[in-house]
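Supplementary Methods S3. Complex input for the uridine-diphosphate-N-acetylglucosamine-bound model.
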Amino acid sequence: MNAINSDIDAVGIVLAAGRGSRMRSRIPKPLHTLAGRELIRFPIAALKNCGLSRFVVVASPENKDAIAGILGDEVVCAVQISPEGTADAVACGLRAMTAIPSLVVVLAADTPLVRPESVVRLIQSHRSAPTRRMTVLSAAGAIGPDLGHIKRAACQSADALGGLLGIEEAADRAEPAYYPAEINTGVYCFDGLWLNKSVEAVPKSATGERYLTTLVAMAVDAGDKVEAEPIALADEAMGVNDREQLAAAGAVLRDRINRFWMSEGVTLVDPAATYIDVDVVIGQDTVLQPNTMLMDDTVIGEACEIGPNASIRSSRVGDRCRIIASTLEESRVEDDVEIGPYSHLRPAALIEAGVHLGNYVEVKNTRVGSGTAAGHFCYLGDADIGDGVNIGAGTITCNYDGVDKHQTVIGKDAFIGSDTMLVAPVTVGQAAATGAGAVVTRDVPEGRRAVGVPARLLPQQQSGSD
Ligand code: UD1
Ligand code: MG
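Predicted complex, serialized as structure tokens:
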């Protein structure tokens, strides 16, 4: 896909001030998520991918802070005081601009499946007809009973499209239209100056709202050139107006994402049971077993085996790792690591190369050094664990004294006997050892052994049994 030339004087307007009442939610509609991304981010990402860099988001008084919080400085936020229709919303967006650009591209915040490829083609089509005032992105043969239908004059030739007459809104139809039609995706390209002049004149519809789509019939009446380009796929026209449509759009998006990663050389054993968020990255020859969820900005390396039943959020996993039936959150895993089944990495776990974490191992805010093994149930929190350590079954870092959290340090090549309680703050030195069931309340120096409750150091020459 070729983005449009960056020196075109273009601004994108994203409409996000509607009530979204069909969602029946306390959360504003643009903040509902699909594949790990808020709805409002989709049109902005699509416009950016097209090569646009200036955006105005039309928000409502209720959702403007939340939207500005998500999008930050990259957009200008215009506030539409009351949702009086999409024409009113566009007028509000134009008023927020210091100068009217020659090209305005309008997208809705609730059509997340619009692909940048289609928007680029729309812009190219619009620009190729210099006298055209407005170009609508439409999808032929789509079913959208609650969406706008493109109306055209009857045409003699089966191959040609009839001239555009207008857009018929669902509210103006006598019967719900459950048949294929040419659907308005809600994406438009405008001659900026014409739009600025015309949009104010859009009359109220029967519902009391001023529809942006009324501009089509107005332009036709006035002899201004308008066109609809049926170049979008049917699923791009899917709007998210209620929870059912949110789930339906999610299913389409999931399918697109899954097919993309398969085309990049990732095996999905069962795509229908694989959930990959839109910002995830996966390396070649990785195998995703069923019930794998890869969320937010997770990155998985090459030749890994993930799942079955793995859930990984905002984490980075190296190459050749095996993660079975485990949960990872905001963690980093280096190469050649084995985790699971039933282990849990909580935020700020750093698992270095070649580590083995077996069953029921919980790790939080802890570095686990290269080649270390914790094969059986244990809790490792607020710890720094060196390379080549053996962590026995049942080991617990007692990091919390009821008021504060404290650190545990375990030196390289240490041996932590089964069922050791490490009462932090505490350090077990390099190549030191603890006996089974030891409750370690004081530091164990390098090379020494501590046993018992509370743990006492064994004489240096003596060797204890674990
Ligand atoms: C709209 C189109 C319809 C098209 C469909 C595509 C109109 C009148 N109809 O219908 O032809 O097929 O999108 O999804 O435009 N908004 C505001 N301020 C308002 C009203 C709406 O910002 O006063 C925003 C909404 O937040 C939403 C977008 O505009 O993001 C579209 O509004 P919505 O009410 O969802 O229109 P649809 O009924 O979906
Ligand atoms: Mg809508």
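The mean pLDDT is 96. The chain has seven helices and 42 strands.
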